[in-house]
Fold this protein.
Amino acid sequence: MYWFFVILTFLLASINSNKKPKYQKVSVIIPAYNEEDTVAKVVGVIKKVSFVDEIIVVNDGSSDNTEEEAIKAGAVVINHETNKGKGEALNTGFKEAECDIIAFIDADIYNLTAKKVEAMIMPILEGKTDITKTKFARESGRVTELTAKPLLNFFFPEISFEQPLSGQFAARKEVLKRINFEVDYGVDVGIVIDADVLGISITEVDIGAIQHDMSPLADLHLMANEVVRTIINRANKYGRVTMIDEIGYDIRMAIVGLSLVILSIFTVFFVRFVPVAVAAVLTLIGIIVSLYYIIKVIIKSLRMFRKTPKRNMIKSFVKIHFPLIISIIILLLMISTFIGAAHFENGVLSIEPNSRNLIIYADDSPRDNAITVRGPYTIDSAIENESDQIRMPSDAMMTLGIKTNDTMVISGSTYTINDTRSGESDIIRLSNEARKALDIQTGSVIQNSRLKEIFEGVGVLHSYESENTTTIEKLTISSRDKMGCNFEVFMDNESIANSFGIFRDNSTYSITVNDELVKSVDYTNNTFSDCNFTYDGHNFEIKFVDRNNTSIKQFVRSDQGNFLNIYINDVENTSD
């Protein structure tokens, strides 16, 4: 019994998998007006396409032998008594065709091939799209480039086909029933616009080079008029004129109101000569104006969406509303910044915004970036068991001219500089004693430019490591940038340290090696005396070079300590 059900299951699966897809009948419509020279050849080429079931030539009031040539070639011919235009000819063929898929091909194509016809129809047969329109290489296209594309880009920017007026296209007959056929040369662009707005999938296929008769200038003039009329009518029908005209004015007025609010808030905090009362009045006016016109924009936009049968107009909507959206985003960011800077304490609301610090270096000082943005920083307490450390963001270290593992001396206490913890990129952690000495509180927000003022006078031991030496420079932090001097330390003709900072004129600076004073150099008239010395078999040289840069690192003079301390790691081996 079990095997019976297994066999039955396989048989049913086999029957289902072998089920053939539903046959789709294909008709080709050829509108023709005085095309006796080419219509037979076009019909002959189309007959070579195996899946084409019906060929209809709509003779649009021709005065030559178009009808006879089409009949000889094997096409069904439908005659118009008078010339009614391409759109009417297509519509006539569309109504008469008994098919599932219908293709429209011009009668004047000299180099039409079966492959070009197949390229038009196969994507629809395979279920990849509902409509195909062609693009091809040709010498003409003046109406397309000078009329159709500019207007489409203005009213329907989501439509971006290379050749919206190509003339050759195919579609499922059922979807074409939803489209309004124009009676003239506007039929091509009308179908493209309707398909896009109605949500019908449309694909542009490349069929290669096409050769046909060039239209005379008079016909191009007529064609351009009909294309313009069709695009404008569709723009009115689908609310695009309202979007650009009426909504455009409301958007501009809403932006004026928002700009007034932004300007007023800015003046409160950054423009001192404008009274707060004036700024408040301007803010109120801006809020009223912007709200009034934003509401109008929303109402008109909703009406326009209801009028449009399809919501495939996001690109157009964003393009028109983009300036308003940007203005709203700017205002929201501005307000959120002020809310984040608000403090409420003892019944008093205080708003003190702190901006980041944009730094642009114009000198030739050695650094990674010539342009950087730093701060602001929030002060917090030291982590438990880290009372002898200061955790500081790398941006703050660069501003103070220090680095990780340097030592700070604050009111006689020493602190090791350490990097911030993960997720605390703008937090400076100090012990309670260090905060008291620097006169700052936890929760204080400090701009990058104020760091130098807060840490002014703080001592720093800044170290440089090499293979056999450790060089430590001793300095204090200055609140103001001053012209500095660069120096490089050599031991046995190898560089072991390179730094720059401020030296006071007419001052003496001491140098030690392994804590032994070995040299004192004078800095007079912005020039150093020679600095060469020998210690325990090692030759030392310090080269000083004036540079066009500034610094806040002020080296200590001899009466304050030793500005340079060199420690030789292999001294014991050398002595042995």
Summary: Confidence is low (pLDDT under 50) at residues 571-576.
